[in-house]
Amino acid sequence: MLTTIGIWIAAFLTLAIYSFLYKDNPFYKTAEHIFIGVSAGYWTVYLWFNYALPNLFLPLFRDGNLWYIIPVVVGFMMFAPLVPKITWLVRIPLTFTMGISMSLFILQIVQGDILPQLQATFLPLKGIPPFQIFSNVLIILGVLFTLIYFYFSKPHTGALGLAAKIGIWFMMVSFGAHFGYTVMARISLLIGRVFFLLHDWLGII
Fold first, then answer.
1. Which of 29, 55, 167, 205 could potentially form a cystine with 146 if both were Cys, beta carbons 3.0 to 4.6 Å apart?
2. DSSP secondary structure string, the chain?
3. How many domains are contained in the chain?
4. Domain residues for 162?
5. 116 assigned to some structural domain
């Protein structure tokens, strides 16, 4: 019984979301508000039990680590704009947040993106099948021509301009591939919802 009710609710919300393809309407707004509310509630509970409670409040109140009061105070400073006279206090937690975030993201980008991409560019050109050689050469040239396009110290004329134009073509192919992948991912989601409506809800397939 509960499974049937859940299927009907899911089907209604699915149709309500897709009704936006016709025009904005109350059914879509209702489903949108439900989705946002459920997501906010879920992430509130998730962040509390997986981050705030074990990493802050339990060490503070159960283990007696009083120095954890400092991040609590800094966190409450985020609400300083609610009181006009102490609005300036929000600069303190924002400074901490931006500084820590920048340091973490820079390390993550260097180790997770830049260095692996550099390593992936150093490809072998001997002792491999001919098609693999062609593929590796294409990747290396694509990286070089794309980097040349972003070299702005000299005008893009002559051989430099030709290399920059080739770099544009490589970027266009890459953007097109990413766009196609995104479209296929969305189509996959659509197929999943259509299958749910026709199989689980209506039972006609």
1. 167
2. -HHHHHHHHHHHHHHHHHGGGT---HHHHHHHHHHHHHHHHHHHHHHIIIIIIIIIIIIIIIS--GGGHHHHHHHHGGGGGGSGGGGGGGHHHHHHHHHHHHHHHHHHHIIIIIHHHHHHH----SSS-HHHHHHHHHHHHHHHHHHHHT--SS-S-HHHHHHHHHHHHHHHHHHHHHHHHHHHHHHHHHHHHHHIIIIIIS---
3. 2
4. 125-205
5. no
